[in-house]
Amino acid sequence: MAQVVKEVRQSVVSDDGVDVPQKKVVDEHGTDVAERIVYFIGGLIMALLALRFLLSLMGANRGNAFASMIYSVSYPFAAPFFGLFNYQANYGVSRFEFETLIAILVWGLVTLGVARLLTIGRREDS
Q: Is 6's pLDDT higher than 60?
């Protein structure tokens, strides 16, 4: 992770009334709060989709409360991709969900794109 170091010049008045310039190095992270929020939300979505993929791969029963919650919460993020490979919802049966893998990839790219758009005008000094 790149780190931005900014030099701030301040002047301090000495006892004899002369301004004495001083350098102060301020260490700042180059990441904005909005960018962090976007990465957090995108990571949360991708983690839910990864859990959905693993539960589907292992044939998790929809009757289980945890599996049902993961399937329900991740459904809106995976649903746009169900038509790609003739998706049939078979819960409780082991299935390799290509659609969910594609969803993870696309949501990762969307997250990266939105985060980059938020910081498009920011200039980092090297």
A: no
